[in-house]
Amino acid sequence: MGAVTVSEPDPAVFLTGFPGFLGSALLERILARGDGPVACLVQPRYLETARRRVASITTDLEGIDRTDVRLLEGDITDADLGLREGLEVLEGVDEVYHLAAVYDLGVDPDLAEAVNVQGTEHVLEVTERLDVDRFQYVSTCYVSGRYDGVFTEAHLQEGQSFNNHYEETKYRAEVAVQERMADGLQATIYRPAIVVGDSRTGETDKYDGPYYLLQLLLAQPSRLSVTFAPPGASDAELNVVPRDFVVDAISYLSAREDSAGEVYQLCDPAPLPVSRFVDVLADAAGHRTVSLPTTKSLARTVSQRLESSPLGIELEPETLAYLDHPTRYACPKTQRALAGSGLEVPPFESYADRLVEYVRRNPNVGDEPMV
């Protein structure tokens, strides 16, 4: 008898943003609840990384094997997503999760436009052509820009200014999604706040955002470390959430039929003021700190010089805008939807030490985005 050819099962779910930090964890949740097979769009340069992560994920899940994940080479910046097999490979898909984006506060405007805006438009076009049942989209709380006040799930187009091209392009991408929702697309939007590592293990694959503050502390003597305190920092909040909460919340909410048509902000309803956040981070690192009052322009100059100095301290100047960020985030709709699920944002104080320990044990993790 000849060899029997086993064909790959048709995918039911299409996921972008793999093998990224959130995308990898979300793929595991989707497979674990039995919603596969899953087709993952992967840029050719990340194909080997994607294969290794699929092997790790499927090994850890009982009853799941590698045939439950299909890796498709492509790119959201291309028409038809650059799929070599064509869109026919996705004909059986009834749910799309769009996570792919360039997360970099200092991103070049052309790159941000191509990935965050045009890429989202391309995914939306493919979604409509496939006539899927559900579209799950990961946005960000920072579509708020520098909105002066409390920003909830009901807010979006408020005439706000933006700190950087990342915020502005994610805003425009969400506007595009909400326009499709108004025309009947069954979609759900998730807006995470600033995402840091896992609250249980500290694991992350990129040191950015609050990690720049931590690296600044760790590069200085523990007996006295200096941090920046621009005007307005005393009134600002730093809204941080760990990866496991974000992914667990998306997994839970996306499985509910009544979440279609909703926007959920995945933020901390009781965030720390910037000054307290720095103190907690310093305590976890075992550092004594003093905040140096300064203007943002001076702090920006200092951060640029620190990066080019022999110390080589990574300090993205764009992060300084969040030390006096005027927006406060509220998530009443999310809290109601998660009530009784056991899912809630853990206090930053409860896991800051794990983030610090992970950074100390893994000093070679970089801050480059996956683009």
UniProtKB/TrEMBL annotation:
UniProt domain Thioester reductase (TE): residue ranges: 15-250
One MF annotation (Gene Ontology) recorded for this entry: alcohol-forming very long-chain fatty acyl-CoA reductase activity
Alphabetical list of InterPro entries matching this protein: FAR, FAR_NAD-bd, NAD(P)-bd_dom_sf
Name of this chain's protein: Male sterility domain-containing protein
GO biological process: long-chain fatty-acyl-CoA metabolic process
Gene3D superfamilies in the cross-refs: NAD(P)-binding Rossmann-like Domain (3.40.50.720)
Organism the protein comes from: Halobiforma nitratireducens JCM 10879
One Pfam family per UniProt: NAD_binding_4
